[in-house]
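Problem 12. The chain below contains 132 residues. Write out its predicted structure in token notation.
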Amino acid sequence: MSRRELREHIFKLLFRVEFNAPEDMPEQAKLFMADTEDPINEEDAAYISGKYEKIMEHLEQIDASLNEKTEKWTTDRMGKVELTILRLAVYEILFDDDVPGSVAINEAVELAKKFGQDEASGFINAILAKFV
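Solution.
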């Protein structure tokens, strides 16, 4: 599976956080891995789960960073899709040494084009530019 496909799966799993209680997320992760259209091999599943768990470990810090960098926008006002994309990208920028900041931004913009509202890609780009 390509890095882009892996990132998309991480986004989809992370998106479930907005609709499920924290104690339900381990079961949601299992369901997610079982319910994908294309089967996810063990190596890719481990990568997706591992990155998801790392994001969740840093979620408070990620949200605090987002709230610091945005003007007139807080994480509780953002659309769920945009917030999820931002969380993934901010994690990659701040905590993942394997992903260059420019790649994290580009991939976030692409996710926004695919899953977000019409203006989402510009919104995502403007916020993430403040992180690099």
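Discussion. Residues 42-57 form the longest helix (16 residues). Students who got a different answer should revisit the alignment rule from Section 12.3.
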